[in-house]
């Protein structure tokens, strides 16, 4: 029997080990349905932590870490708290989970033949937020989940590749995100989930944005990035690079918090750059049956969801999928 993307989960559900490629494969069918036979072509899993030299500044004859120097006391405390939670999750798994932290990956294979596959109930909105905002306002239904992975300002990403589009200023991001009709298209008991980077100004920005939509944060999920053997890809206490990204989850002010929604640490081995874990099945445990989702800045389609963005079909292309023999499936 094919293994689930959830390789391990603590009894209370607050810690889980997740396989990213399998989560994307599962997302091509509705929760409860049998996954498709085809597999996602992935990157070689990381086997050793990255070496990240901590940049230093010299002030008054003393070397200080540049990362710490630029952060407010509140941001430094938040990093310490996240680091403590991450370390607790790693310690817990070291005692309870004794296996590889990812499934065997398909690194190459013949592409799937035929047209681009559209999952059941999936709707593609291929275009920019500016171009399609009016269309969404007029034709889209009300959603139980609106998830977004905004292209936050990031100098290192801009240096890496011209194919990963980011905005240059948070002021530009504010104008961009207000093209999403959150107030009119989020159900009364719905959730908004926003991936953020570790820059403290971005968390402050998101909290102000949520407040402008009359939303309030109710939970935070942390994707803790690890090697195939479960080591964090950067030191937990690194000032320069953190081995995690966060998902801020919010609800309407005055609405009840969905039962089962709690902080989570999702331990997962990274895949190709910009691929996030697909959380369709995790939200299925929290939201109503057959809930409707909208993913903004999407790079693939998800069964039962609307997907919106310039690169919405990027990883849906047949070149990223293969159909190996059943014997090759982990």
Automatic annotation (TrEMBL):
This is Methyltransferase-like protein-like protein. GO terms for cellular component: nucleus. GO terms for biological process: methylation. It holds the Pfam family MT-A70. It comes from the Eukaryota. The keyword Endoplasmic reticulum does not apply. Belongs to the MT-A70-like family. The lineage of its organism: Eukaryota, Fungi, Dikarya, Ascomycota, Pezizomycotina. It comes from Emericellopsis cladophorae. One of its GO terms (molecular function) is methyltransferase activity. Keywords: Methyltransferase, Transferase. The keyword Methyltransferase applies.
């Amino acid at each position: 029997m094919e293994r689930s993307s959830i390789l391990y989960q603590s009894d209370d559900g607050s810690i889980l080990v997740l396989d990213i490629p399998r989560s994307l494969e599962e997302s091509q069918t509705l929760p409860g349905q049998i996954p498709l036979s085809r597999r996602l072509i992935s990157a070689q899993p990381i086997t050793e932590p990255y070496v990240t030299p901590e940049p230093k500044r010299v002030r008054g004859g003393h070397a200080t870490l540049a990362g710490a120097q630029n952060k407010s006391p509140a941001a430094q405390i938040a990093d310490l708290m996240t680091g403590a939670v991450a370390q607790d999750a790693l310690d817990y798994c070291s005692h309870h989970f004794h296996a590889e932290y990812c499934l065997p990956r398909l690194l190459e294979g013949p592409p799937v033949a035929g047209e681009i596959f559209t999952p059941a109930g999936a709707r593609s909105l291929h275009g920019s937020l500016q171009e399609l905002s009016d269309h969404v306002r007029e034709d889209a239904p009300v959603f139980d989940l609106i998830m977004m992975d905004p292209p936050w300002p990031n100098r290192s990403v801009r240096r890496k590749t011209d194919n990963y589009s980011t905005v240059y200023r948070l002021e530009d991001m504010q104008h961009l995100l207000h093209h999403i009709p959150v107030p009119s298209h989020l159900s009364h008991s719905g959730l908004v989930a926003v991936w953020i980077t570790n820059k403290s100004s971005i968390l402050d920005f998101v909290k102000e944005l949520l407040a402008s939509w009359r939303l309030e944060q109710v939970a935070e999920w942390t994707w803790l990035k690890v090697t195939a053997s479960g080591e964090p890809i950067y030191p937990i206490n690194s000032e320069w690079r953190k081995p995690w990204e966060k998902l801020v989850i919010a609800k309407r002010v005055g609405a009840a918090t969905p039962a089962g929604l709690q902080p989570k640490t999702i331990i997962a081995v990274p895949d190709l750059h910009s691929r996030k874990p697909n959380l369709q099945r995790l939200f299925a445990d929290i939201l109503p049956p057959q809930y409707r989702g909208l993913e903004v800045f999407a790079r693939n389609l998800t069964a039962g969801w609307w997907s919106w963005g310039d690169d919405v079909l990027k990883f849906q292309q047949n070149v990223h999928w293969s159909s190996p023999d059943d014997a090759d499936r982990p």
